[in-house]
């Protein structure tokens, strides 16, 4: 087998950092996963079956500890939220907090978002996709690991309804510029704020711990909202 014939390993946009589960997080994963958890092996989802209603579905990729995702679910009980996160402590915290808050319109995967999009999310089904403060991969040699790339933009577009949004936010200006460059030429999208313009922070996006950290460090925050036009 030549080098060109060998299967190419997919470049990951994240590094798994397992961390320690608290007792509450571990218990939540053990006892509440059947209520809140979703698996890639489940295959294509029927959202009415998952949530028991026909409300709009919004996917958040990389929700961290889940605090802002839970707040959005509480603020918009008529919508349904699916969080995708690879770090088990964050997933356990979201499930535990959702249970204690009595929130029923949120579900979560503990998997790679690329796999979830491919195997679990039906085409043209989502009202929105959110990507808040992803790893910017600061070093130039690592820029290729940034999740916002032309191919990824089209994976998202395939899952959005016409009129659905792809909302990105970052506190790293070079990454904001990269996002704008990628999305401005992405087929089938319109910039909600106008060509090459960043969006004002929407009311529905809570401040995250990454945003607060960035503010303490003197960073700005850039929001980009692109609408699927076709």
UniProtKB/TrEMBL annotation:
Coiled coil: none annotated. InterPro entries: SAM-dependent_MTases_sf, tRNA_(Gua-N-7)_MeTrfase_Trmb, tRNA_methyltr_TrmB_bact. One of its GO terms (molecular function) is tRNA (guanine(46)-N7)-methyltransferase activity. Pfam families: Methyltransf_4 (PF02390). Pathway: tRNA modification; N(7)-methylguanine-tRNA biosynthesis. The keyword Iron does not apply. Keywords: Methyltransferase, S-adenosyl-L-methionine, Transferase, tRNA processing. Residues 141-146 are annotated as: Interaction with RNA. Substrate binds at residues 139, 171, 208-211. GO terms for cellular component: tRNA methyltransferase complex. Its EC number is 2.1.1.33. It is an enzyme of class 2 (transferase). S-adenosyl-L-methionine binds at residues 60, 85, 112, 135. It comes from the Bacteria. It catalyses: guanosine(46) in tRNA + S-adenosyl-L-methionine = N(7)-methylguanosine(46) in tRNA + S-adenosyl-L-homocysteine. Belongs to the class I-like SAM-binding methyltransferase superfamily. TrmB family. HAMAP family: tRNA_methyltr_TrmB. Catalyzes the formation of N(7)-methylguanine at position 46 (m7G46) in tRNA. This is tRNA (guanine-N(7)-)-methyltransferase. It comes from Ketobacter alkanivorans. The lineage of its organism: Bacteria, Pseudomonadati, Pseudomonadota, Gammaproteobacteria, Pseudomonadales.
């Amino acid at each position: 087998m030549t080098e060109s014939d060998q299967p190419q390993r997919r470049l990951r946009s994240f590094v798994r950092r397992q961390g320690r589960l608290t007792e509450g997080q571990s218990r939540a994963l053990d006892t509440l996963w059947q209520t809140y958890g979703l698996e890639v092996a489940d295959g294509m989802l029927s959202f009415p079956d998952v949530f028991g209603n026909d409300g709009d579905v919004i996917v958040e990729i990389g929700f961290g500890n889940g605090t802002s995702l839970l707040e959005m679910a509480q603020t918009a009980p008529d919508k349904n939220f699916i969080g995708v996160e690879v770090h088990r402590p964050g997933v356990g915290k979201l499930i535990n907090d959702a249970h204690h808050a009595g929130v029923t319109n949120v579900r979560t995967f503990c998997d790679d978002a690329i796999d979830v999009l491919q195997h679990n999310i039906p085409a043209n089904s989502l009202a929105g996709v959110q990507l808040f403060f992803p790893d910017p991969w600061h070093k130039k040699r690592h820029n290729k690991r940034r999740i916002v790339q032309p191919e990824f933009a089209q994976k998202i577009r395939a899952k959005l309804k016409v009129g659905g949004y792809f909302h990105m936010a970052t506190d790293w200006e070079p990454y904001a510029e990269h996002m704008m460059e990628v999305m401005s030429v992405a087929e089938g999208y319109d910039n909600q704020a106008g060509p090459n313009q960043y969006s004002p922070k929407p009311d529905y996006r809570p401040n995250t711990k990454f945003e607060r950290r960035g503010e303490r460090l003197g960073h700005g925050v850039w929001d980009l909202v692109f609408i699927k036009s076709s």
